[in-house]
Automatic annotation (TrEMBL):
Superkingdom of origin organism: Eukaryota
Protein name from the UniProt record: Uncharacterized protein
Entry's family note: Belongs to the protein kinase superfamily. ADCK protein kinase family.
UniProt-listed InterPro entries: UbiB_kinase
Length: 103
């Protein structure tokens, strides 16, 4: 699912394997993607619209008093979104699990 939705990050000759950072190195990542502002914009829009749509639906559920009824459906949708967005959302997944466990 990740490569279907986000494979463009590594395709289309945007970077050779040597250009991509091999470690979690913020300055290195900034150098690679600082030269690709349209790619960063595209990815930001993808992440924003995916989460924005989910939060909007969750908000509408709460307005219609259906939040409890729709919880499992929205959880499955969120899981699918996180899977499609890939590793960039791993930290968000960890935070979300922590919050849901302690609610």
């Amino acid at each position: 699912a990740f490569t279907r939705c986000s494979g463009y990050l590594f395709e289309e000759g945007l970077a050779t394997e040597g250009d991509l950072p091999t470690a979690y190195d913020i300055p290195g990542i900034a150098r690679v993607y600082g030269r690709r502002p349209l790619l960063v914009l595209r990815r930001s829009l993808q992440i924003g619209t995916s989460f924005g749509r989910w939060f909007a639906l969750r908000y509408l559920d709460s307005l219609n008093d259906r939040a409890d009824d729709m919880f499992e459906i929205r959880a499955a949708q969120l899981r699918r979104i996180l899977l499609e967005l890939g590793p960039v959302c791993f930290l968000f997944q960890c935070v979300l699990v922590h919050v849901l466990v302690h609610v």
